[in-house]
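In this supplementary section we document a worked example of the pipeline. Step one takes a protein sequence of length 478 as its only input; no multiple sequence alignment statistics are reported here. Step two produces a three-dimensional model, which step three serialises into structure tokens for compact storage. The input and output of this example are shown verbatim.
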Amino acid sequence: MFALKSCYYWAVEKSQNRNITVFGLGRSGLASVRYLKRLGFDIFVSDSAPKEKVSDAVQAELKKLSVECEFGGHTDQSLAKAQTCIVSPGMAPNLPIIEKARERGIEVISDIEFAARRAEMAKMPIVAVTGTNGKSTTTALISHILQEAGFNAPYCGNIGVPILEVLTQAEEGKKVDFLVAEVSSYQLEYCTDFAPKIGVWLNLTPDHLDWHQGLEPYIKAKQKLFYKQGMSSFAVLNFDDPIVIGTTTMAEIFPFSQKTELEGCIQGAYVSDQFICLRKNMQVHALCRVDQLKIKGAHNVENALAAASCALLLGVDAKVIAKALQSFTALEHRLEFIDTIDGIEFYNDSKATNTESTIKALEAFGNQKVILIAGGKDKGTALGDLATRVRQSTSAVILIGEAAERFNQNFSSMGVQNIHRVATLDAAVKLALDLKSGPVLLSPACASFDMFRDYEERGHVFKNIVRAKQKELASQAK
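The serialised model returned by step three reads:
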């Protein structure tokens, strides 16, 4: 049925002969080009990278698709025919070309917005997850629970799999019951009518403030997830976060909390006597103990509460939810255990690109002191709260990247002891092995762009170094 509907809407859209410009050739941008070309749109691609920086494979694909392109910047040519622009995440709304498009009355949207319109045509429900931290884990956990319940519910969006890539599979005949999408503030900034069946807001702490030009625009971007929801939709909101719980929406609110048992609320998810519980329709379901989760830390309890809430609202049996919560393991680059070398455990938390994420990672180790490897591309955020947690939770700190100097000065002024600075991740791992003063945690509290392509490459490099050291020591022991 989905494929037949898709063909009908393809015919309608083709007859409109709409011209679309795609800004940016990242994962989502390239997926957008493929999707739009399949539907018969006239596409122009504009990328800021010089042509020689674009891979031969991508250039060959664009040529095969007969897509007109420009590289090395965004010119007026990109807007000459455009009726709609699909903007890759990361392109700030105050860029001259974006402002110029809006001045000309050209629609500027994200791939999430475009995909949601297509999914709405086919009556395909979307579960959308946003928040400053925990989005990827929660998105993957919702997908995992739904898959365990027998649904095909692939995760997509900001988690690394473009939503239009998954939608293509559905339109070509693959059965898809739900789209579970991680949605960033960047993507929401360019949404106008997005109205998911379930919207999840995990938390809000200052981040990306330079991109959004302040905290209030950042909050408003997150709130866009709920603006167009109707009364048949659900808003799963963190009751412990005063900004999140103050969200205005027409959707039915399903709160979650790990600090209270939501007294006075007729429904919600909460922790009681160390059990994760769900309450709905006068029934309480005690799913599993917190210590039965395989994902570490109090922040992951919040993620589990949110994911369980979504599953219950979609009709999944409580016993299935409980079993799935206990079988889910950490995603790559998120408090991911790598290996033990000479009795020292190594953890990869490269996804921690802001201070709040690193604080939560340190809290996950309880009273155990760790060797923290931090630093990278400095976001310029305040470091007071992070320094306080680092002083409490670390036996040593190893700093890398361009943020090392500011972190060093701030940490030292806050009484953090045993701070070291090194030039590379390899040197950081070697020093950590020499120090032998606790588990080693890579949790940078910074972006990666000063030394790596992205947080994933940083995490992979770290894991490869650790495994190489393990093999080296093992061969020496023979």
